[in-house]
Specification:
Layout (H helix, E strand, L loop, with lengths): L8 H19 L3 H7 L4 H9 L18 H14 L1 H21 L2 H13 L4 E4 L16 E5 L2 E12 L6 E7 L9 E7 L5 E7 L9 E12 L3 E2 L5 H16 L1 H20 L1 E2 L2 E2 L4 H29 L9 H29 L9 H6 L12 H16 L1
Parallel strand pairs: 1-4
Antiparallel strand pairs: 2-3, 3-7, 4-5, 5-8, 6-7, 9-10
Length: 393
């Protein structure tokens, strides 16, 4: 894949077309086995680095492509059309771990970890959610990190961690000063070889199967002080800026599968006959197709606007203000569209869409988690409302 710091819109679209062909050639055929066996094609995932699809937003001098968040979102949508599960793991690696590390890490940390993450030699993950800390990720966090000489000792558990069972490194949040509340949280890069770190279990989920999900355990885990990301007790700034970008680059994982489901439903409406005519000739089916089209195009257009805003925002100031509102709205809209389109697509397919071994069924099981992950729909509504009311004051 060719890389350039400033690509024209035409170049980006050509790049996405090339990426789409690669994803359907290489990743699409893996879908069924991944879903049936919850199998993760590790070598194919690492090969994304060799093809230039890892480190999309990382500058070229560090091994990335140096492209915009808009380009990353468009590539993510194309990947999610071909294979939603690999795209889910890709987002956790490329955005939640790699991009966050690059934006917040020291130059030494960048040089040590970023090129290997871009090449696919390392697989990354984010360790934020805990058994008792979901929507209240900060207030209910129980994992602690105690400084001892030249290292920290981590104790706690992280749950529902995408890529957790296969990750080589994970960006992990822990309390370094519990008495200080949200001002006492720090971010660390934990390597899988560290003493006291383990994967307790691999979790079985409804959708995005084949993208491994696990529970991470830290039992007197020794983390060198040089693996502290940013400054001690300033991890919330890392977390909140990461959440805004996460929402923007998770939205394509709702839109991509929705587009694929729409394409399949449209083809089915053109070819399936009942009562002596195509089902697409019935006005109720036509209405569904029109509504599906509008939902996808509207959410995509808004998302592209928000991704452009990400490219123009100093993300260390994220977690509040306009980008905070926009990112929450982008994911809220995309996930709503995804769920709506999937439901309509299965309805158009009828009984065949209810069969587990069909592609439309696999797609149907993907979007719900996007109404939950990266802050639930209700949390997103609160964020949007607070920013609106704050600006009106």
């Amino acid at each position: 894949m060719n890389s350039a710091a400033n690509m024209s819109a035409e170049d980006v679209h050509e790049l996405v077309e090339q990426a789409t062909k690669y994803f359907f050639d290489r990743l699409y055929p893996l879908q069924k086995r991944m879903d049936d066996e919850d199998w993760f094609p590790e070598q194919e995932f690492r090969a994304l680095g060799q093809m230039g699809f890892l480190g999309i937003t990382v500058p070229q001098e560090y091994g990335g492509q140096g492209l915009s968040y808009l380009a990353a979102g468009m590539i993510g949508e194309a990947m999610a059309m071909a294979n939603p599960a690999i795209a889910w793991s890709w987002t956790s690696h490329d955005n939640l771990c790699l991009d966050a590390l690059f934006r917040n890490g020291s130059e030494t940390q960048r040089r040590r970890f970023v090129p290997a993450l871009c090449e696919g030699k390392l697989i990354g993950a984010l360790g934020m959610t805990e058994p008792g800390a979901g929507s209240d990720a900060i207030g209910s966090m129980r994992t602690t990190a105690k400084p001892e000489g030249d290292h920290y000792v981590l104790n706690g558990t992280k749950l529902f961690i995408t890529n957790g069972p296969v990750a080589d490194v994970a960006l992990v949040y822990a309390r370094t000063a519990p008495e200080r509340g949200k001002l006492g949280i720090s971010a660390f890069l934990v390597e899988k070889t560290f003493v006291g770190f383990s994967v307790a279990q691999k979790l079985d989920k409804m959708g995005f199967r084949g993208s491994p999900l696990g529970e991470l355990v830290f039992q007197d885990c020794i983390v060198p002080a040089e693996n502290l990301i940013g400054k001690e007790n300033q991890g919330v700034a890392v977390m909140m800026s990461g959440l805004d970008v996460e929402r923007c680059l998770s939205a394509p994982l709702a839109i991509g599968p929705a587009q694929r489901a729409f394409d399949l439903a449209l083809d089915h409406a053109r070819t399936r006959k009942q009562f002596g005519q195509r089902i697409g000739d019935f006005q109720l089916v036509q209405a569904k197709l029109a509504d599906m089209y509008l939902a996808i195009e509207s959410s995509r257009t808004f998302l592209h606007r928000v991704l452009k805003a990400c490219d123009q925002t100093e993300l260390k100031q994220a977690g509040r203000g306009e980008i905070h509102k926009l990112s929450a709205a982008a994911l809220m809209g995309a996930s709503r569209a995804g769920s709506f389109v999937m439901d309509a697509a299965v309805q158009i397919f009828g009984g065949s869409g209810y069969m587990r071994d069909t592609e439309i069924n696999r797609l149907y099981r993907t979007p719900k988690v996007l109404e939950i992950a990266a802050g639930t729909q209700e949390i997103r509504q609160i964020i949007i409302a607070k920013e609106l009311l704050g600006r009106a004051d």
